[in-house]
Design goal:
Layout lengths: L1 H5 L3 E2 L10 H9 L3 E2 L4 H8 L1 H10 L14 H11 L3 E5 L8 E4 L2 H19 L4 E5 L5 E9 L5 E13 L2 E7 L6 H17 L4 E9 L5 E7 L6 H8 L3 H9 L16 E8 L1 E2 L5 E2 L2 E2 L2 E3 L6 E5 L6 E2 L6 E9 L2 H14 L1 E3 L5 H7 L3 H5 L6 H4 L3
Parallel strand pairs: 1-2
Antiparallel strand pairs: 3-4, 3-5, 6-7, 6-9, 7-8, 8-11, 9-10, 11-18, 12-13, 14-17, 15-19, 16-18
Helix pairs in contact: 2-3, 5-6
Length: 378
């Protein structure tokens, strides 16, 4: 209705829930409005996590051992027994870390399947679950891809996203500080293969887990622009939103794979309105004052301002602080300086946590995994 009223011929859905709604993409098409994103078919194919795993296997992309989706507790039990514990129970329609539980034995699994199904039903309207082997001390690395309507798919290299809380990312960077070049190339090729297999158009992200032996496994594809897309933009010099708009307009990608050459190091710090010293408790409220950092290689994406009220109803992300520098060491120093200059008063934020992380020797060395923050004392 808003598009019709204003005469807009396209809708960019951002990176919220609408961006991964095949029903919304279909509604746009039915109304004659261009949806700036992939086709409804591609969204549906990748939105069902269990179905996406099957498609990945068919495309020759390695996946974490797991089961197909089901609402039957007995199916989950048999699958976990076959895979071996520990396992993760995951919502088939899930995302953002919701609908996920970890079970280390059969008794624990029986107790949590019903809770996971209820959360999945409430969050996504679908109680289907699947079981997946839990890879401990794994890294979370994702590959940015963009496809056009002429059959071209280009990858824009990787982002390291292993620093997480409650399975939601806190810090992302590119390039990964720990991957061998052969692993990096193999993941990128696998991501392009999967995107081609589903006829993917627009920007999307193929996410992998990488174990301690550098074996990588597909976990899901996000059929939208990622929150952390700015990291890739800073190291490749590519405006991913511009690429989305060109693809939506039917244009062919201007860049070939050979044109995408990363340079330097980029790091993003998610600034959330929550208290990391109180179990990341949400901290809604009024922002009394705001001072943003500046200088070369510093970027802040935000909509907040002094006097803005952070509501309690939505995701707690209120700003993204990104830095770029010629080397990772310089980037980490620049990030520390920018975080010290970023002042948000009135609500608790994750800024103090980020500053502590930048004093952690293992973080500085890139020796991290997805469970690292849960293992480190406050």
């Amino acid at each position: 209705d808003a598009a019709r009223e204003t005469g807009a011929d396209a809708i960019h859905p951002g990176y919220g829930f609408l961006s991964e709604s095949s029903r919304f993409a279909e509604a746009c098409e039915a109304a004659g409005v261009t949806f700036v994103g992939p086709s409804a078919e591609a969204i549906a194919a990748m939105g069902d996590k269990a179905a996406a795993r099957r498609l990945a296997r068919e495309a020759g992309v390695p996946v974490v051992p797991g089961t197909d989706a089901s609402t039957d507790t007995d199916v989950a039990q048999r699958g976990a027994d076959e895979i071996g514990y520990p396992v993760m129970v995951k919502a088939a329609a899930g995302g953002g870390g919701r609908g996920i539980r970890v079970a280390r034995d059969a008794d624990e699994l029986r107790g949590l399947v019903a809770d996971a199904a209820r959360e999945a039903e409430a969050a996504f309207g679908d109680a289907s679950l699947y079981v997946e082997k839990l890879l401990e001390r794994a890294r979370h690395v994702e590959i940015q891809v963009v496809g056009d309507r002429h059959g071209n798919v280009v990858h824009f290299h990787e982002r390291e996203c292993s620093l997480q809380r409650r399975r939601q990312k806190l810090v992302e960077e590119s390039p990964s500080p720990a991957l061998e070049s052969s692993t990096r190339e193999g993941m990128a090729e696998a991501a392009v293969r999967l995107a081609e297999a589903v006829g993917y158009t627009s920007a999307g992200t193929v996410e992998f887990l990488v174990d301690e032996d550098e074996r990588f496994y597909f976990i899901e594809m996000n059929t939208r622009l990622q929150v952390e897309h700015g990291v890739t933009e800073m190291v490749t010099g590519t405006d991913l939103v511009r690429e989305q708009l060109l693809v939506a307009a039917g244009e062919e990608l201007e860049l070939s794979q050979e044109d995408v050459t990363p340079s330097g190091s980029s790091i993003e710090f998610r600034i959330n309105a929550e208290d990391p010293d109180r179990g990341f408790q949400p901290a809604p409220g009024r922002i009394e004052s705001l001072e943003l950092p500046g200088g070369p290689g510093v970027r802040v994406d935000t909509a907040i301002y002094a006097g803005y009220t952070v509501p309690p109803f939505y995701d707690s992300l209120i700003a993204k602080l990104l830095v770029w520098a010629p080397t990772r060491e310089q980037g980490l120093r620049r990030g520390r300086r920018a975080l010290e200059e970023l002042r948000i008063e009135g609500v608790a934020t994750t800024i103090p946590l980020h500053l502590r992380l930048l004093e952690d020797e293992r973080v500085l060395a890139g020796d991290i995994h997805t469970g690292y923050l849960e293992q480190v004392p406050a």
